[in-house]
Write a structure and sequence with these properties.
261 residues, alpha/beta, 2-enoyl-CoA Hydratase, Chain A, domain 1, six-stranded mixed beta sheet, 17% strand
Length: 261
C-alpha cells in the first residue's frame, strides 16, 4: 500500500493526517501528490481558520520519504529531479496555506518528515518524539529548500550537526535548538494542540492571515518582499467588519464574534 493523506474539516479546523502506519507514516510519492492537493483545498476553503497536521497513530509523525520507492523514483536512472520537485511542491503547498498550521508530532519525525514539519508555522511535540535527518546515511543530499528552512530556523551550526552526524535527537534537545516550539507529555499532546488551536479560531481570521503573511515576508531579503501587498493585507484588516466588531466588543466588555470579513 502507498498510504494516503486524509483531510477532515471540523469546527473551522482542517485536520490533515499522514496515513501510512505500516511504514511509520513514511511519505510515498502518491502521498506527496495527495498532500499537495489537500493543502490546496484547505487554502481556498473559507471555513478553515487553522490547520493541524499529524501522523496517523502515536508511533510516528512521518518517518521520512518512502525509501522503498527511491530506486525506482530517485536514482540516477530515474527522474530523481522530478521526485524532488514533487516533494518540494507538496511542502510549498503546506507552507502556502494562509491560515496558521500546527504540526502535532508523535514518535518519529525523520528526513522528509522534518522538512514537512518545517513548513508548518508551529511544531508541538510529544516528549517521546525523535528527530533526525539521515541523508548522509543514504548517500543523498537533503533538498536545498529544506536546508534553507532548516538553517533559517535553527542556525548554521545546528543544521550542520544534524546533517553531518545523521544522529537522532530527542524532543527536549530539539526544543533547545528551536527545531520545535513546545514539548508535552505524550498523552497530553493532542489535547494541548486542540486547546491552542481553539484559541486561534476565536481570533480575527484576517488578522491571523495578515500576521502570517507579514512574518513570512519579513523572513525574506528586503528586496524580495512584496511591500505593496504587505501594506494591502494590513489595510484590509483596518477596513474589515471584524475590526469594527473587535472595537465594539472591547467597548462593550464582551467577547467579539469575528466573521472573517
Amino acid at each position: 500500500m502507498s498510504g494516503s493523506v486524509d483531510l477532515v474539516i471540523r469546527d473551522q479546523v482542517a485536520h490533515l493526517y499522514l496515513n501510512n502506519p505500516e511504514k511509520k507514516n513514511a511519505i510515498s510519492a502518491e502521498m506527496w501528490e495527495d498532500l499537495k492537493a489537500k493543502a490546496g483545498e484547505i487554502s481556498i476553503d473559507t471555513r478553515v481558520r487553522a490547520t493541524i497536521l499529524r501522523g496517523h497513530g502515536l508511533s510516528a509523525f512521518a518517518a521520512g520519504a518512502d525509501i522503498s520507492q527511491f530506486e525506482s523514483r530517485r536514482s540516477a536512472n530515474s527522474e530523481g529531479s522530478t521526485y524532488d520537485e514533487l516533494t518540494e511542491s507538496a511542502v510549498a503547498a503546506v507552507k502556502s496555506i494562509p491560515v496558521p498550521v500546527v504540526a502535532a508530532i508523535h514518535g518519529f519525525c525523520l528526513g522528509g518528515g522534518i522538512s514537512l514539519a518545517l513548513a508548518c508555522d508551529l511544531r508541538f511535540a510529544a516528549n517521546d518524539s525523535t528527530f533526525a535527518i539521515p541523508a548522509a546515511r543514504l548517500g543523498i543530499s537533503y533538498p536545498t529548500p529544506a536546508i534553507e528552512r532548516l538553517v533559517g530556523l535553527i542556525g548554521t551550526s545546528n543544521a550542520k550537526y544534524l546533517l553531518f552526524s545523521a544522529k537522532r535527537i530527542g524532543a527536549q534537545a530539539a526544543k533547545e535548538i528551536h527545531l520545535i516550539d513546545k514539548v508535552f507529555k505524550q498523552e497530553e499532546l493532542d489535547e494541548e494542540v486542540e486547546t491552542f488551536v481553539a484559541t486561534l479560531i476565536n481570533n480575527a481570521p484576517l488578522s491571523l492571515k495578515a500576521a502570517k503573511y507579514i512574518i513570512d515576508q519579513c523572513a525574506l531579503e528586503h528586496h524580495e518582499r512584496d511591500l505593496e501587498n504587505i501594506h494591502q493585507v494590513s489595510r484590509n484588516c483596518f477596513l474589515s467588519e471584524d475590526y469594527k466588531e473587535g472595537v465594539r466588543a472591547f467597548m462593550e466588555s464582551r467577547k467579539p464574534i469575528f466573521q472573517g470579513k
